[in-house]
Amino acid sequence: MTQFSDRLWSEAVQDVIQAGERMDQRGWVPATAGNLSRRLEDGRIAITRSGGHKGFLTVPDVIEIDPAGRPIDPMQKSSAETLLHTQLYAADPLIGAVLHGHSVAATVLSMALAGSSLTLAGYELLKVFEGQSTHDTVIDVPVFDNDQDIARLATVVAPRLGAMPAGYIIRGHGVYVWGRDMKMALARLEGLEFLLACELERRKL
Ligand SMILES: [Zn+2]
């Protein structure tokens, strides 16, 4: 490993650690929930190790996987939902970071919804998502039924990839959001979570 690539790795790990802290501050990674990853400029993928609290990540909690989701070090075990991260990286070479959290709003709203999408319309914050320049727009956020078989869940998600400007929701579970870098992924996650919280509040009125 060159000095250059070591620097890239360190930066990626710090991105993941800081994003975990941020998600924890917002209450989106309770207990051992959630997982975070970052694709380096050289193509390597850094992802959180299985288990552990994502608000208190340390350098060894972030491990390297190959594009198929296998840990480079066979003694390590990556997040249970690793395949949902590598699926996104494989689908779009511009994706540089993927975030998954379990918020109250995402969990409650998706359990109350019967359909396969949540429609978001009229919100100023919709502009945070790719290709949107006005609040006067409608974004459908896909909602997939939860499944402990992640490979099977990935095959259900696959057909709708490419048409998810705001990410997607797994029912009763949480959200997946991504961006070209960690900053963008975090901005989109905050945007989606804000809108989910708004939708939840509106249903209480
Ligand atoms: Zn999860």
Description:
- This protein has 205 residues and is of the alpha+beta class.
- The protein has one domain (3-204): L-fuculose-1-phosphate Aldolase.
- The chain has five helices and eight strands.
- The protein has helices at 3-25, 82-91, 104-112, 150-157, 182-204, and strands at residues 35-39, 45-48, 62-65, 97-101, 117-121, 138-144, 168-170, 174-179.
- An eight-stranded mixed beta sheet has the order 3-2-1-4-8-7-6-5, with helices on both faces.
- The chain is globular and about 50 Å long.
- The relative contact order is 0.15.
- The mean pLDDT is 94.
- Bound molecules: zinc ion (ZN).
- Residues 33, 81, 100, 102, 173-174 line the site of zinc ion (ZN).
Secondary structure layout plus pairing:
Elements: H1 3-25, E1 35-39, E2 45-48, E3 62-65, H2 82-91, E4 97-101, H3 104-112, E5 117-121, E6 138-144, H4 150-157, E7 168-170, E8 174-179, H5 182-204
Parallel strand pairs: 6-7
Antiparallel strand pairs: 1-2, 1-4, 2-3, 4-8, 5-6, 7-8
Helix pairs in contact: 2-4, 3-5
Bound molecules: zinc ion.
